[in-house]
Structure formats: structure tokens, C-alpha cells
Design a protein that fits this description.
CATH architecture of the largest domain: Alpha-Beta Complex
Largest sheet: 6 strands, antiparallel
Oligomer: single chain
Number of domains: 4
Radius of gyration: 28 Å
Distance between the termini: 100 Å
Number of strands: 21
CATH superfamily of the largest domain: 2-enoyl-CoA Hydratase, Chain A, domain 1
CATH class of the largest domain: Alpha Beta
Structural class: alpha+beta
Length: 530
């Protein structure tokens, strides 16, 4: 005899199987029943409709996508709609907001500089202002996360936002209504004449506006007497392939190969110079380090392989995988690797990796330091199979991942002490610098109307250094001994001088100060002088 509860269980099971069969039929692809896609669909439908507890179907699918991509190369990734927008902003060349450079002093937003001709500058917001409320909601003194503050300040072009501002010397709180607009995001960090006849341009990434910014910088420096160029690509993580090709094109002769791509399912595609570049003569030195990657390596490899210039620094990152964005219906995106980059001599830029092993890949820079590669050129060894030749002068260059420079510059591990590193990590250096500039902005501008005079004669006051040391002690950060303190002071002073220059002028002035102590830049100047 079959009991009632057995009949009930059988009935429920039959109903579930019917629902599963009915629902899965809606997603039936025109493939074999045992296809991997069919199997994945069955699993998703089963979990969503039969699992004992409720599940977030959207998250379930996202986790499945991430799980698949994690078994591939380190650069195939999934991004949510929000992440897609955040990733694209630096490359698209603009975002929509009020147009201020700012930093946080404790829990107060301090305006470093309003963007030139931006919406905030147009209505009278100045450097040193403190924004304390947004649309009548306090953002100061409430420990609001920086991301939340940025979210409140940004918004669609044409929308208005009310700001409450506290200004030194003004008793009452000021009220401004700012109309949001498109705010440019620059990828050329600095451009200035570093020595008579020698220009310096630093590119932070390769975005939609990089090529135009680069051309404008070249034009400005040429008018100032530039003949030769140092192109600084240190810490440049890459960006758009087109931007890299456009930059390399400015240096190369017509028909010169810049880069080619090739994959199992993607045929070889070559990118060549059109001969209309604006810097076809004049010496070129490219500065690189272990964080120079992707599009930045394309420019570096093209200039090196075509014997157009010399590369100075340390071996680059080694990201030579081409990703194609696959847009999904909800605004999310898969960046799927489809090919490899190759330099003109045929070198694959990509460093070795094991599929699914992102941990070892992420530890590469640590492994380089442990092996001695970053500090001693004699620690670097290449096998003969990795040898290649440049295309004109037939100089030996090496493949195997990344671009090995023509002139090696070891990493100076002594200039930045543990004490200095701890002060910086706790934001003590940047916070005290901001306070100093905020309190002395007017007198600094009056005393130093010329940056050249500032660079040559300004000395960081001992009182600022003493304040940093005292604040460090409050947070139990102390030098090991007097020797470490003495070793820290010179570079700390230089860093503070550069930060003050940035806050009074801009990033070109910042790099103009810090580059005077850079072994990398010094070697670049030496190579050009030869």
C-alpha cells in the first residue's frame, strides 16, 4: 500500500520535473542535447526553480560567468554595469560633474584647484574652499565615504547642484549653485622643457583624447625650443590600442610596422605608420618600468624595434593580450582575450602565465624583486631562443614577456625609507602638506609668482617637517634611529616641495621638481646627450 505522504512527494516531484522541462524548453538552443551550452542552461534552470532556498538569479549567472573567465588568462574579466562606467571614465576623456580637483583633510572636502573653465570656476569657487554641504546635506563632519561624496557631486550634464562652501576670511557660509557639465580627464600628466632643447612628456594612460593632448603638448614644447624628447611611460597601465598606434605613428616613417595582433580565431592584423607623423626627426628616449603595460608597451616596442629611439628603465609589465569587449544586455560587459600583441620584430609582449592561476601572475613584481632583477642587471638572463633583432640597426633585443630596455636603471630601494613609507601610508605627508598650503596659499603665491624662482630657491620650512614628525609620533610612527631620520628628510623635503608646486600650479610643475632627483630621468638625459 502506498501511503498518502509518498503520493504527495511523488506528486511534488512530478510537478517540479514538469516545470523544469517546460522552462528549459523555452531556452532550448539549436544545438545537440549534450552540448556544453545546453548543460549550462539546464543547471541554471534547475537551480533557479528547484533549489531549496531562494537564490539571486542575477548573481548566480554573474558568478557563473566569472567562474568561466577565471579559468582562462589573467586579463579576461567580467564587469557589472557600474564597473563598466567607472572603468571607461578615465579612457573616454571626460565625466560629468562640477569640475574640481579635491582632497580630504580628515572629513572635510578641500578644493585643490577648480578645473580651468569648468563649471565651478565659472561661478567663483576657488582653491582652498571647503565644500561642506551638497544639496543641503552635510558632507563635512559626518565621516561620509569619499565615494559617496563623489556620487553626490557628479551627475548628468545640465543638472544643478547646490553647494555650501566655507572660505577662509569669510565669516558666513557661502552658497553656490553649480550647473554640472562634462569635465575633461587628461591623460598627459606633464609636459615641460626639462633642459635646453629637450622636452619631457609624461603620459598616464592611453585614452580617447591622448593623441590630441600629445599633439598639443608637442606643439607647445616645440614653440619653447624643443628638439629632442623624453617620453615618460612609467606606471602607464595602457588603454586603447588606437591611441597607442596614433602616438607611435607620430615618430615613424611611412610603412613602418607599429604592432600586429594574431589569435587562434582572429587573423593577423597589422598596424603601420602613414608617414604623416609630426616628430619624425629628433632624438627620442622612452622611460619605462615594471608597471608600463599593454598600449604603453606597444609604443615602446615600436620605437625600439624600428630603431627610432632608445628605451631606458626596467623590464615592462608584459601584458600582450588583446581584449575585445562583449557588451551584455543589462549594460555589463565581458572583456575577452582574442589575440596576442607582437612588436615589429615579432616579439610577443605577453609574459608567461598558467591558465586559472592569477595568484602567481599577480606576484610577478614581487618575484622580480626577490630574483634581483629590479636592482641588479647581472641578475637578468635570457635564453638564446628569446633573441630578436631590431629592424634597422640589427641590435639584439629579447622576447619572453615585456620590453627589456636598452639602458637599464636599477630600482633605488634606499631613497624611500620604511619610516617615510609608513608616514605616507597613513596619509600623514599629504594631509600635513594640504594643511600647510591651505594656511599659506596667499603668501606662497605672493612670494613666488614665478615657478622657475620657486623651483630654484624655495626650501620646505622645518616647521612643516616637524609637524609631520610630531603627527607620526602621535600615531606611533617613529624612525628606527637618527640615521633613518637623517636619510628620510632629503626625499621627504623634495616630495613636499613637489606637492606644494602641484597645489599652487599643476602636475607639470610637480614632475619638474621630482624629476630632478630621478635616476631614470637622469639616465634618459644622459642617453640623449650622447
Amino acid at each position: 500500500m502506498i501511503k498518502f505522504n509518498q503520493i504527495t512527494r511523488w506528486g511534488i516531484l512530478s510537478l517540479c520535473l514538469f516545470v523544469f522541462s517546460h522552462l528549459s524548453a523555452q531556452f532550448r538552443p539549436s544545438t545537440k542535447d549534450d552540448s556544453p551550452l545546453r548543460k549550462l542552461q539546464y543547471a541554471e534552470v534547475a537551480i533557479t526553480n528547484l533549489y531549496v532556498d531562494s537564490v539571486d538569479e542575477k548573481k548566480l549567472v554573474e558568478d557563473a560567468i566569472r567562474g568561466m573567465l577565471e579559468k582562462l588568462d589573467p586579463h579576461s574579466t567580467y564587469a557589472t554595469p557600474k564597473e563598466v562606467k567607472e572603468l571607461n571614465e578615465p579612457l573616454n576623456g571626460n565625466f560629468e560633474g562640477i569640475g574640481v580637483q579635491f582632497n580630504m583633510i580628515e572629513d572635510t572636502l578641500l578644493v585643490i584647484q577648480p578645473v580651468t573653465n569648468g563649471p565651478s570656476e565659472k561661478i567663483g569657487i576657488i582653491a582652498g574652499d571647503r565644500i561642506v554641504s551638497v544639496n543641503d546635506t552635510a558632507i563635512a563632519g559626518v565621516k561620509m565615504p569619499k565615494e559617496e561624496i563623489m556620487k553626490r557631486l557628479r551627475g548628468p550634464k545640465g543638472t544643478k547642484v547646490k553647494l555650501g562652501v566655507v572660505r577662509q576670511g569669510i565669516k558666513d557660509q557661502l552658497k553656490f549653485t553649480v550647473t554640472r557639465d562634462k569635465i575633461p580627464v587628461k591623460s598627459v600628466d606633464a609636459a615641460y622643457i626639462i633642459r635646453p632643447g629637450i622636452g619631457y612628456i609624461r603620459i598616464g594612460n592611453f585614452g580617447a583624447t591622448t593623441h590630441q593632448e600629445f599633439l598639443e603638448s608637442l606643439s607647445k614644447l616645440r614653440k619653447a625650443g624643443m628638439v629632442d624628447l623624453i617620453l615618460d611611460l612609467q606606471d602607464n597601465g595602457g588603454g586603447y590600442l588606437k591611441a597607442a598606434v596614433d602616438i607611435a605613428n607620430e615618430f615613424l616613417q611611412r610603412g613602418d610596422l607599429i604592432v600586429y595582433t594574431e589569435g587562434l580565431k582572429v587573423p593577423r592584423m597589422e598596424y603601420k605608420a602613414d608617414g604623416r607623423g609630426v616628430f619624425l626627426s629628433g632624438k627620442v628616449v622612452v622611460l619605462v618600468d615594471g608597471f608600463t603595460a599593454s598600449a604603453a608597451e606597444i609604443v615602446t616596442g615600436a620605437i625600439q624595434d624600428q630603431d627610432r629611439g632608445f628605451v631606458v628603465g626596467r623590464r615592462t609589465f608584459g601584458k600582450g593580450l588583446v581584449q575585445r569587449p562583449v557588451d551584455l544586455p543589462d549594460g555589463s560587459m565581458i572583456r575577452l582575450t582574442i589575440a596576442h600583441y607582437y612588436t615589429p620584430s615579432g616579439r610577443c609582449i605577453q609574459k608567461p602565465y598558467k591558465k586559472g592561476d592569477k595568484k602567481d601572475y599577480a606576484m610577478d613584481m614581487v618575484n622580480r624583486l626577490k630574483s634581483g632583477e629590479l636592482t641588479n642587471v647581472d641578475s637578468i638572463h635570457f635564453v638564446d631562443s628569446l633573441k630578436y633583432e631590431t629592424l634597422r640597426q640589427h641590435r639584439t633585443v629579447y622576447g619572453g614577456g615585456g620590453i627589456m630596455p636598452d639602458e637599464y636603471v636599477p630600482l633605488d630601494t634606499t631613497i624611500y625609507t620604511d619610516y617615510h613609507r609608513q608616514l605616507a601610508a597613513k596619509s600623514i605627508v599629504i594631509q600635513q602638506n594640504l594643511r600647510y598650503v591651505d594656511n599659506h596659499r596667499k603668501e606662497l603665491k605672493e612670494c613666488w609668482p614665478s615657478f622657475d624662482e620657486f623651483k630654484q630657491h624655495f626650501e620646505v620650512p622645518q616647521s612643516l617637517i616637524d609637524t609631520i614628525i610630531a603627527e607620526g609620533e602621535k600615531q606611533e610612527i617613529k624612525p628606527k634611529d637618527e640615521a633613518e631620520l637623517a636619510q628620510t628628510i632629503p626625499y621627504l623635503s623634495l616630495q613636499l616641495k613637489a606637492l606644494i608646486a602641484r597645489d599652487i600650479w599643476d602636475m607639470s610643475e610637480y614632475y619638474s621638481v621630482v624629476n630632478e632627483s630621478s635616476e631614470m630621468v637622469r639616465k634618459g638625459l644622459e642617453v640623449i646627450s650622447k
